[in-house]
Amino acid sequence: MSTTIILAYLLIILGVIIWAVLIPGGKHISPKITSYISIFGGAFLFASCFINLVPHIFLNDDPFRFVTPGIHFKIAASIMVGFLIQLLLEQLTRGAEHGHNHCPCCEEETEARQHHHPHLAHAGHCHTGANHPITGLIIGLCIHAFLEGMPLVDLDGDIHQGLLYGIVLHNIPIALVLVGLFINNRYGFWRSFILLVLFAVMTPLGSLCNIFFLPPNELLQSLIMGVVVGILLHVAVNILFDHDHNNFTIPKFLLILLAFAAAYFTPGCPEIYPIF
């Protein structure tokens, strides 16, 4: 395995667990900053899907391999399957992939801490017993991270740079949501740290599983990439609409334009088009 791949894995892992420094002091990043990070990451994912990832699905040394209509249908279907998979996963994750925690109990707890409203705070844990949301949320996020990591390395051993940086940016608001949940639910540092590490390693594990256990079949890899594109498009669209459709501002619009430009200039498929 090349040093480049190992470094890519380390970048993904460290990009998540570095936020564990917030846990001991019970600190929260400003919601406005988290919102801007989410918007930039969502716009970057959206652009990368069309600039970097979709072209790579059809990239092959044999230009006639994809002439068969059935192959086009399979790839299109895989994208729709990925979209539906993410729709199902959100029943577990409660929208954490968008940089949100849609649990009313935890949102109330966060508001109490941030705005010093002790009457809103819960005595003890935000959730108890079987109704605790963390377990399902972690399972959903781990499945999501595992799947999006599978096509990270192509058959030639090259990293999909657009996917790599999109995952790193996309994981920041997810990690901040997890840290906030751990703090709200009075998790200890080591318990929180282990759960963060578990989420962080799932993307490299998905990539390793694809490299070592799945056959190096170009059509199979294209279908896997199609599923991931569907997942990422669902996440990206939800991020952009969650933040912008009712609250349009010029700074947010400029942030989206900046993310589109960053995705365009990120090396993706230089065999298809030049990067200027």
Write a brief caption for the model:
With 276 residues, this protein is mainly α. The protein has helices at residues 3-17, 31-57, 69-93, 104-115, 134-149, 161-184, 189-213, 218-244, 250-264. The chain contains nine helices and no strands.
Describe this protein's structure.
- By secondary structure, the chain is mainly α.
- The protein has one domain (30-60, 70-263).
- Helix content is 67%, strand content 0%.
- The protein contains 9 helices and no strands.
- The longest helix is centred in the first third of the chain and has 27 residues, at 31-57.
- The chain is globular.
- The two termini are 30 Å apart.
- Mean pLDDT is 81; it is low at 123-132.
